[in-house]
């Protein structure tokens, strides 16, 4: 029983690994396009063109697979997703990009994060901006909340 | 066993141990490594699913989602240990089920179950960390040493 | 009575008038399940602790042995027993229940034959008429005593053994019908410097070989005298090694005449690694399985060599080697003894 169970288990996993291996090659190819949506201008809200500019300049980096950014009048939050194998150098990249963004937007308070959660939250926020369902105060509140979330430590 | 230690034994014992070593069934290292890789990987995969779940549906970031994920894994281990599955898994998975946090959970929980008959204070209380205790002691100790080395290097090494 | 230095010959022929064997759930799936008197499907036996469960098993085995015999409980004069738990308390509590004068023994897994040999010696010397000898062990209680908690998922090497859950008792009498205890050889502690508590078979094999060799020499018989030579709990690894050692000393016992209780008790596909062990291992297999075969006439002379590894968790942790012992008792069919 021991051996047969082991064999079954091993077979199952070999198959799973082979399938997974074959699968990723194809999806990797098709996913090479960047996940970026430029924000549309809304008269009732802050002008989001600084965010769009930030996206454009970060697009240059091949490590990045997706960028989300939102800004108020003096604050900007940027979240990036980077290629899986580049995650080993994530901290280094994050610092460099943060510095670059600060240089690009002098006088702004820039927050750059590589965290998936921040990315998801910004994605939601971008959608809300595009649908024009937010007021200025609400946007500021949401941004404050996201910044607080990004500062949380274990 | 080290050769120096063997030399202290009487020749009869040495001869016997040589014979014994030949006859003794060895641990199947290659099989154990493979099983450890597969089972350990599976446990980590489950952990990653749980973590992604927490990031998507709860206000946890990649930084903070680790804690609830660990707690969930330990809770699952508790069930698996209590129902008697984890030790069977451990027999063929080896390090694969011992190294992840589930192994630590199992070490604590199994000792707690084992000594319940001796009472909650003396039995469970004193024996709970019987197997897991060394992990904590040397975990803290090695963390201290590493921190010390890092401090020395950054302070005087100018890193 | 004493012949040579270590061997007793029992010329008054003490008789095993009845036996009682109890097994646990894992033994109920084993190779010799049909020879148990009681099999439990609950590891706890409805008790609060595994130690109490072990105590209950020993009490049951004693009751069965007495019930199957023509005598009453009050006629039993001594109870000789022991186990593996701290200060042999489960046995002591069982002795309290049985309520007869009691000798408590510790020889680890060799306790079964040590108690039988002592019972036979006392009866042979007119020290008593009826003596109950028996042992019990419990898998979970023993694991807790010697190794990790039962549910701990540590990986055991293939040389590790599985402690038998069960109890076996033999009622030895001065007169009666049944298999006769003809001789016993008390073993010396043999220590080959083995230190791995997960390889007790390998540690105990030299002790078993030493006792078998001494027994055959001092009794003045060849190994062909016995239909079967049974080792206690050497299991697959230890049994193989002991065969090799016996061969080196010029004792070539054919494969089918040299068996081990630790191998006999479980099925091939039961996950017990090298095989069974524990005080109850040799007791249940001998008293249940082999004595039944003797009753059926399939065997007439057997030599049971129970092996014990006498380490404690303390001595192992302090880096001491494992001292081992083996006691041999020869049992012969009643009609065969002259």
Automatic annotation (TrEMBL), chain B:
Keywords: Membrane, Transmembrane, Transmembrane helix
Protein name per its UniProtKB record: Stage V sporulation protein AC
Keyword Ribonucleoprotein: no
UniProt superkingdom: Bacteria
Species of origin: Compostibacillus humi
Coiled-coil regions, chain positions: none
Transmembrane stretches, start-end: 33-57, 69-86, 93-113, 133-153
Lineage, top ranks: Bacteria, Bacillati, Bacillota, Bacilli, Bacillales
Pfam family, one: SpoVAC_SpoVAEB
Automatic annotation (TrEMBL), chain C:
Taxonomic superkingdom: Bacteria
Any Pfam family hit: SpoVAD
Listed InterPro entries: SpoVAD, SpoVAD_sf, Thiolase-like
Organism whose genome encodes this protein: Compostibacillus humi
Protein name as annotated: Stage V sporulation protein AD
GO molecular function, one term: acyltransferase activity
